[in-house]
Each structure stands twice: as C-alpha cells, then as structure tokens.
Amino acid sequence: MAAENLSVFGHDPWWLVVVKAVFCFAFVMVTVLLSIVMERKLIGWMQRRIGPNRHGPWGMLQSLADGVKLMLKEDIVVKRADKVVYILAPIVAAVPAFMAIAVIPFGPAGDEVSIFGTRTTMQLTDLPIGVLYILATASVGIYGIVLGGWSSGSTYPLLGGLRSCAQMISYEIAMGLSFAAVFLYSGSMSTSAIVDAQHNRWYVLLLPVSFIVYIVAMVGETNRAPFDLPESEGDLVGGFNTEYSSIKFAMFMLAEYVNMVTVSSVAVTLFLGGWRAPYPVSAFWEGANHGWWPMLWFVVKLQLLLFFFIWLRATLPRLRYDQFMKLGWKILIPVSMVWLMLVATVRALRNEDYDFQSIVLYVAGAVVAILLVSFVADLFRGRGEREREVPDGDGSFDPMAGGYPVPPLPGQTLPPVPRRRSRRERELSEVSVSGGVHTLSDESAGSRDGKEAGGA
Prior knowledge:
The chain has helices at 14-46, 62-72, 83-99, 130-151, 155-186, 191-196, 203-206, 208-221, 233-236, 246-271, 279-284, 293-315, 321-351, 356-388, 423-434, 437-455; strands spanning 113-115, 118-120. It is an all-alpha fold. The protein has one domain. It has a two-stranded antiparallel ribbon. A hairpin with a 2-residue loop joins strand 1 (113-115) and strand 2. Helix 4 packs antiparallel against helix 5, helix 5 (155-186) runs antiparallel to helix 8 (208-221) and helix 8 (208-221) packs antiparallel against helix 13 (321-351). The longest helix is centred in the N-terminal third of the chain and has 33 residues, at 14-46.
C-alpha cells in the first residue's frame, strides 16, 4: 500500500500559491479552448466537412471568437424567472468545476521543480481525502444545472434540470464504487499517493472493470453525448439552458467542458498512472519521470481521453431516458458492487498470504456461483411474469376511465374503430332523418335517366 506523505505541501510562500492557482486556472481554460476547436474540427472531418477555418490560423481561435460573440449578445431575463437564482445558477455550475483541479498531481510529490528560484511540487495541494473532495465539488456543480432549470419558470428547462439531478444520483453511485476499488488497492484516498502506488502497474490493468464503469459514469456525469439527456433538443428544446442567453449561456457551456477536463484528469490520476511515463518510455529512460517531463505525459493522456469524448459524440446516437436509467441502475451499479466484493476478497486473501492459484480458484468459484444464482433467479422471475400476463375477466377496456386517455394493459383490447361510411351512405342517412328518402331516390333516378338519354 502507498504511504501518504503530505508533509511536502503547505510550505510554499503566498505568492507561489497564487502563481500555482493561476496556472491551474489557465491550464484548464486553455485546455477547454483547445478541446472546443478540436471537437469541431474532428467531428467535421469525421462527417466529411471542413470545420472551422476562419478565425486564427487553421481556425484555432474559433472557440475564443465564440466566447466573445456570446459576451456581446443581448442578455435576456425571462419575466417568470426567479431572477436571483436565475443569475446565480450559471455561477454555481461553473465555479466548482475549476476547484477539483487543485488536488490533481502534475508531477511527483518528492521531485520538486524550480519556479522563480523556489523549489516546489507540481501540485497545488493534496488532502488525505483528495478523491472525496473531487466527488464533492462535482456534486455541487450539478446544483447549478438543477437551479437553472427550476428558476427559468418554464416546463422544458425544469424537466432538463430534473433529468440532470437523476443522472447525478444514478451515476455517482457507480462512480463512487469504482473509486472504492482503487482505495482498496492503493490504501489511500490521496491523489498523489494513488499515483505513487501505480509505480509497478497501472490500475487500468489491475482493475479493468472499475475503469470501464468509471468511463461510462464520467460521460453520464458530464451530460455529454450519447448521455446528453438534460439538454436533448429532440424532446426538451434545449433542456435546462433553454431560457439562457449571452454570458450566462456561455458559463453553462464552459462548465460542461471544464467538467470534461476534470473527470478526464481524475481518470488519468486514478487508472492511467497519472504523470508517469508509459511503459516503453519509462523502462529505457530513467529521467522520464523527473523534472518537467511528467507534465508532458499527463497532458498526452488527458488529450487522449478528451478525444474519446469527441469520438463518442460523433459515433453513438442519443439513448432514450429509460435506457439510460436502466444502464445505470440495472447494469453499472450491480456490476460495480459485485466487482468491489471480488476486489475486497482478493485483497483479504493476499493479506492472509494465500498463494495466487488459490486466489484465482476462490474468485472463479464465486463468479460462477453468482452467475448460477442470477440465472436461476431470472428463470423463476420470467415464469412468474408470464403467469401474471394471463388476462383477467372479459378483457374489456375503457380508455377514458380515469378521465385521461390511457393505453390498454396486457390482456385488454381496444374497442373496434367504427368503419367510415361512404358519401352515398351519409347522404341517405341525412335525408332519412329529414323524412325525404323517396324524394332523393326520385331525383337521383331522374338524373341518372337523363345522363343515359344524353349519352344515347
């Protein structure tokens, strides 16, 4: 297990703390600007389009031009909005997104670098519960989306905010369970200690299920396609930010991309070795993990994960909301819980000095037993559902029984739709009601005889 050594933090002079904080903010902002341009260009190339090419060399300043354009647009506040909450919501969504980067290590804690002649670590600060701090800041950011949807005073933004809240509850459970497996292996919740614990093997190899669960959960947590249900234009117009414009809309967009950078940085730190160089480089070059080089490896891994976000958006269609909730509650959470129990069992057996073959045998036996129990449970559950599907009574159905039109339940049938009458039958019915059936018959017969005579 990794030993926490946080004594190197908290000794920087105040001006150096300010410099490092400004660097973290600038790093996130520059990464966001590059990510927006990269997303528009890559999706354009994937869809056989040109992409942005007007602002700056090769269109690299397009995202900056979009930010200036949004700031100069008219700022509209709708009449029915709760103005205080309406204005504060974008700030609540954007500010916590920047806070998580404070505990992300860009380099080893024991290998200091020189900044303006002062030796310091390549990390703003660290905490014994650094990963829980990241989870807390990510959770606070969701309140901005929920409050923005509620304060707009409109139906579609409210539904978008409620969807975002449901996503946060569903996918943070799976995300926390994937983190718990990392805590068991590293023996720490400190981000720097977790990276130090991966000196022999990255956790993406030791804990592949946790990594996959976290990747899916981080896409759902950031409301990105194919999980962008809170702002689905197909059924919610624009979702929670429908009634926003100008700089407030830009802050919501900024929060989304900053969250992408944050969750990708957490994935790099917890599963991909953090600032450590990949295996071929670290094996043949001793200085790969010293000096300023660790920042290069961190940035490369971060950009690869951001490319993964863009690739998903250009490839997969948007899920239905029931499919999205089913994925979180019926697949990700149960798989994470079973995997966490297996990881805890392996760690406990290793602490008791069991050999590797015995551990594999016990784990394989547990997996087989769980699969058999789930198969039997599904078999009996399917039989019970088929028995309940037998219709009761005569199967009659009244679609307006509760005052609102409702679809039929299993075993019920809709009443037959009346056949549309022909024009001749409608005319006969109208005349018969007025008592002139014979007159219509005589007139029609006379007109028919006249047409025949004219034809002859």
